[in-house]
Design goal:
Blueprint: H1 2-21, H2 32-35, E1 59-64, E2 72-75, E3 81-84, E4 88-91, H3 97-111, E5 118-124, E6 128-134, E7 140-144, E8 148-149, H4 150-156, E9 164-173, E10 190-196, H5 197-201, E11 211-212, E12 217-222, E13 225-230, E14 236-239, E15 246-247, H6 248-254, E16 267-272, E17 278-283, H7 285-290, E18 297-298, E19 303-306, H8 314-332
Length: about 325
């Protein structure tokens, strides 16, 4: 009898999986909301709305609706993996519940179930959340265990985005001290620590690689931009990477060079100051390129305009409109 019982459950499980692979009458699927796991009301949330990302020691409920025997409650290992029936070990660390559910569905569909429906729910948050936002490749809420530093968090977010500017902000809650009474509904007090990107990555200032605490928000600010409009091959907006200034010649290169009708001797830098006053600076780009004049540095929100040699036409009037649009955007983002 013991041998019969030992072999009975695997037999039932195999028959259940075999049945999943056979053509079956249409059966209404569970509600769509069951497949896309939502976070508990009191779970960690990001200041910018990014989804919670699973971390070490989080306790997960994995539900396979078609085969309840495959549903499980498991804890994420120290290596960030999750062991599941049939499909084995999957990497859960750094993924949202929705991403993990899709991975499990795909693995089940490969061999076992025609159209699996899986939900992942975080039963217990064991990790400590840190939000990494802004100009990074994978913004979100990441889980830390033990001691982590700024560059560790940037690596977890897959590094800086090409649009990253020159400043990283760490927003951190501060304590009011044990003897100060604070209303329970008062917003938490925070401090902001500014880190220069160039100093951190290029100038060897290791002291800027500060320790990150649970609940910190790491916000990588986007770069400011300059605009090239008029008779360029590729007019447009170009970010100042890491806050480094560009020159007129460099901006012209980013714009793909000049059109055949460009009046390179008649360029203009349009610059708006903090008080909203406008300054127009004539610039002879032809002489700069010839080496007979010094290159001119541009600052954030400058507009480099090159007119056409032709008389006013519908096209040149359209270019005037492009200048007006760039001017409006430069004023707006100041």
């Amino acid at each position: 009898m013991r041998y019969f019982a030992a072999g009975f459950f695997p037999l039932i499980l195999c028959l259940s999986l075999f049945a999943q692979k056979q053509p079956q009458p249409s059966i209404p699927a569970p509600p769509a909301s069951s497949f896309l796991s939502t976070q508990p009301q009191n779970g960690p949330t990001s200041l910018a709305g990014e989804s919670y990302r699973i971390g070490q020691d989080d306790l997960l409920d994995v539900t396979v609706f078609e085969v309840p025997e495959l549903s499980t409650t498991s804890r994420v290992s120290a290596a960030g993996t999750l062991a599941l029936p049939l499909i084995g070990v999957v990497n859960a660390n750094g993924r949202t519940t929705e991403e993990l559910a899709l991975i499990i569905q795909d693995e089940l569909k490969k061999k076992y179930i025609n159209e699996p429906h899986v939900s992942v729910f975080i039963r217990e948050y064991a990790s400590q959340p840190v939000s990494v936002l802004g100009a990074v490749r994978a913004p979100g809420i990441y889980q830390i265990k033990g001691q982590k530093f700024l560059m560790d968090m940037l690596a977890m977010a897959q590094g800086l985005d090409p649009a990253a500017g020159k400043t990283i902000q760490i927003i951190r809650r501060t304590s009011d001290g044990p003897n100060i009474s604070v209303p329970s509904n008062a917003p938490p007090k925070t401090e902001t620590i500014d880190i220069d990107v160039a100093d951190l990555f290029q100038n060897g200032k290791t002291e800027l690689n500060i320790r990150i605490n649970a609940g910190d928000v790491v916000n990588v600010l986007s770069a400011l931009s300059i605009f090239v409009v008029g008779e360029f091959v590729r007019p447009g907006e170009f970010p100042l990477r890491f806050g480094k200034p560009l020159t007129v010649a460099q901006a012209a290169a980013l714009g793909g060079g000049f059109s055949r009708d460009a009046k390179k001797a008649g360029g203009t830098i349009i610059r708006y100051h903090a008080d909203r006053t406008k300054e127009e600076i004539p610039v002879n780009i032809q002489k700069i390129l010839d080496g007979s004049a010094d290159d001119v540095p541009l600052i954030a929100n400058d507009i480099l305009f090159v007119p056409s040699n032709r008389v006013k036409t519908g096209l040149s009037r359209a270019l005037d409109s492009a200048v007006a649009i760039a001017v409006g955007r430069a004023i707006y983002i100041r």
